[in-house]
Specification:
GO terms for molecular function: DNA binding. It holds the Pfam family HTH_31. The protein is of the alpha/beta class. The protein folds into two domains: 4-81, lambda repressor-like DNA-binding domains (434 Repressor (Amino-terminal Domain)), CATH 1.10.260.40; 88-112 and 153-276, Endonuclease Chain A (Endonuclease, Chain A), CATH 3.30.870.10. It has twelve helices and six strands. Helix 7 (118-128) crosses helix 8. It starts with 12 loop residues before the first helix and ends in a 5-residue tail after the last helix.
């Protein structure tokens, strides 16, 4: 993790926020732990803000301004630092993905974003934003493709994915798009040893993640977090007891899913279905 003293505050708005927070904290004679206690977070979290490894939150910035006597200075900087290409509700999770050493994800109906093809992502985006201009659609698709580059980076996380069999049967974008998407999944699993795919079959019945998309993220020097997402909304979960509950549920889902080998065979069979005849759910 970059240390505050090593940061160039003018690199980006988040670095400037971190630099200003450190300046104000030291001017007020607070340690990171002392300041954290005043605003109901850990000293380690204050350190992450100062090191520009976490995106600042507006409500926390308001409390920091109050404790540090800085008016609305940090709140204004926070608004700049929180600008993102992705949806606001997903921005913090997208940022955390870049630092994760392992991501364990469950997709109930859709292919996870990091493994989507351009055609599949475009079809999903058009469905989610039916009245958006084409330029807006293409902007969303471009951003998603940029995020997918994470899996090819030198610091790519271990990416363990469980998708429900229903994902294979929903013809997003039509037969050609689905064939391309499922073929892409097969190539990703074969070409990247850090990508593991499993399919939760219909025969597995109900389970805790049946109606939601879940990502568990682990880090080298930070506590694990969970991100859950639904239509037009998402939430980060950092409470240790809840994170542990999600992890236990994910372990059960992993045990109930098909083995990686059987999963790839099922995906390959579904891909062939999209090339041979009209697909019916």
């Amino acid at each position: 993790m970059p240390q505050p003293n090593d940061l160039d505050p003018y690199t980006d708005p988040r670095s400037f926020y971190g630099s200003e927070l450190r300046r104000l904290r030291e001017a007020g004679g607070h340690s990171q732990e002392q300041l954290g206690e005043r605003v109901f977070c850990s000293g380690a979290y204050i350190g992450q803000l100062e090191g520009a490894t976490r995106r600042p939150q507006l409500d926390l910035s308001k409390m920091l301004d109050g404790v540090l006597g800085s008016g609305e200075h940090l709140q204004r900087l926070c608004r700049l630092a929180r600008k993102s290409k992705v949806a606001e509700y997903f921005a913090d999770a997208a940022d955390l993905q870049q630092r994760a050493t392992a991501i364990s994800q469950f997709g109930s109906m859709l292919v996870p974003g990091l493994l989507q093809t351009e055609g599949y992502a475009r079809a999903l985006t058009c469905g989610a934003h039916p009245f958006a201009a084409q330029s807006v659609i293409e902007g969303h698709v471009s951003t998603r493709m940029e995020r997918a580059e994470l899996l090819d980076s030198p610091t790519a996380p271990v990416f363990w994915v469980i998708v429900h069999e229903a994902m294979l049967r929903v013809p997003v974008g039509g037969r050609a798009v689905m064939h391309g998407q499922l073929t892409h999944l097969l190539k990703a699993a074969h070409a990247r040893p850090h990508v593991v795919l499993q399919v939760m079959p219909f025969s597995a019945g109900p389970h805790p993640f049946l109606n939601t998309n879940v990502s568990l993220m682990d880090f080298t020097d930070e506590p694990p977090v969970v991100y859950t997402e639904g239509s037009y909304t998402g939430q980060l979960v950092e409470e240790p007891a809840l994170v542990a509950q999600f992890r236990s549920a994910y372990d059960l889902a992993r045990a109930a899913a098909l083995s990686p080998e059987a999963s790839l065979a099922l995906i390959e069979s579904a891909a062939k279905d999209y090339t041979t005849h009209d697909h019916h759910t």
